[in-house]
């Protein structure tokens, strides 16, 4: 008798049912004291030892799938490599390499005194004319802002050039720390002509572009440069990273409906928590 392949709707039902059962069992284990809150979450993994695919890679892929599918949630503690190796009959170097692969991808993090934890999914941002505040809110994450500096004064030469302003004109320089769900994500420095700049208090509760729209300034076009570099000590401290940790950088000059430059920004993002997405089309 030949068993017909499962339909996509059936596969979706089975996956959903499995995730629900997994969560219910974890709740019951916690209630019965069999799984302490904050204890490491066991994960069912099937490995094909006859496959030419390395075991560490199979293990890393299985753990990543569990994170992506929600079986392992942000904040869950993960088994230590020794316990995982013993349970799966693997060598410790194999489990260590698999876990390190996911640490390097930003899906797991090692914390002293806590162990290995699942982190929030990286922020996925398309290269479009949007603000980070709007992107986070659209993705269902909670953006918060800490205002680090707010000054009014004459611009530096590079800022004056980007905004097409004379050196004796005043600009507002704003430096902020942006967090997603309470986790630091980016350090942003922006420069605007003083006539259109939002108040300092307003920037702690709303995004910059949102505040500009409320003032009738509609950003229509932007010139943007994306790069990468190591974090300075000050940036590392703000972003909860190590000095010289990899950062993504973005420099953007934004223009309004009339073609006037209204904002110039220099931003840096944690590479472990953030990436840009582009679509390329053949002409």
Automatic annotation (TrEMBL):
InterPro entries: Bact_HTH_transcr_reg (IPR050679), Chorismate_lyase_/UTRA_dom_sf (IPR028978), Tscrpt_reg_HTH_GntR (IPR000524), UTRA (IPR011663), WH-like_DNA-bd_sf (IPR036388), WH_DNA-bd_sf (IPR036390)
Record keywords, A-Z: DNA-binding, Transcription, Transcription regulation
Keyword check for Transcription regulation: yes
Domain HTH gntR-type: 53-121
Keyword Aminoacyl-tRNA synthetase: no
GO molecular function list: DNA binding; DNA-binding transcription factor activity
Pfam families: GntR, UTRA
Gene3D superfamilies named in the record: Chorismate lyase-like, Winged helix-like DNA-binding domain superfamily/Winged helix DNA-binding domain
Name of the protein this chain belongs to: HTH-type transcriptional repressor YvoA
Species name: Mycolicibacterium chlorophenolicum
């Amino acid at each position: 008798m030949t068993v017909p392949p499962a339909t996509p709707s059936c596969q979706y039902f089975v996956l959903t049912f499995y995730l629900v059962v997994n969560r219910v069992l974890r709740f019951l284990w916690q209630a019965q004291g069999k799984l302490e809150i904050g204890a490491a979450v066991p994960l069912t993994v099937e490995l094909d030892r006859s496959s030419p695919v390395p075991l560490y890679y199979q293990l890393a892929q299985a753990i990543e799938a569990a994170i992506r599918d929600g079986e392992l949630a942000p904040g869950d503690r993960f088994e230590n490599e020794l316990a995982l190796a013993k349970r799966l009959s693997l060598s410790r170097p194999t489990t260590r390499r698999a876990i390190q692969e996911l640490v390097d991808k930003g899906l797991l993090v090692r914390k002293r005194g806590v162990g290995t934890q699942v982190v929030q999914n990286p922020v996925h941002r398309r290269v479009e004319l949007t603000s980070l505040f709007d992107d986070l809110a659209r993705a269902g994450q909670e953006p918060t802002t800490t205002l680090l500096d707010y000054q009014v004064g004459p611009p530096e030469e590079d800022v004056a050039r980007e905004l097409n302003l004379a050196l004796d004109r005043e600009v507002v320089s704003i430096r902020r720390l942006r967090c997603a769900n309470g986790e630091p994500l980016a350090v942003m420095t922006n420069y605007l002509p003083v006539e259109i700049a939002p108040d300092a208090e307003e920037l702690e509760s709303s995004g910059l572009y949102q505040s500009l729209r409320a003032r009738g300034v509609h950003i229509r076009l932007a010139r943007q440069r994306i790069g990468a570099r190591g974090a300075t000590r000050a940036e590392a401290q703000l972003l909860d990273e190590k000095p010289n940790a990899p950062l993504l950088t973005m420099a953007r000059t934004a223009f309004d409906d009339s073609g006037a430059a209204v904002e110039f920004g220099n931003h840096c993002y944690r590479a472990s928590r953030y990436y840009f997405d582009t679509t390329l089309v053949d002409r």
